[in-house]
Design a protein that fits this description.
With 66 residues, this protein is mostly helical. The chain contains two helices and no strands. Helix 1 runs antiparallel to helix 2.
Length: 66
């Protein structure tokens, strides 16, 4: 039977992808400044960072220190 914490590895990869997307949105240089996209980038970066911290902590405690 698969341990449910095994899926935190996939969550970690998902949050890395969300973080990359947020950084790309935030770092795009546009001729017309779109404030809404700027906020979307910031929110994605925050969500991805917090999720990454939680998932990496669970992965380290469950798999690496076991």
């Amino acid at each position: 039977m698969i341990n449910p914490t095994f899926f935190d590895i996939f969550g970690t990869l998902g949050f890395i992808i969300i973080l990359i997307i947020g950084i790309l949105i935030k770092s795009k240089k546009r001729k017309l400044s779109n404030n809404a996209l700027n906020w979307v980038g910031i929110i994605l970066i925050l969500i991805a960072t917090l999720g990454l911290v939680v998932d990496v902590t669970i992965v380290i405690k469950s798999f690496l220190l076991k």
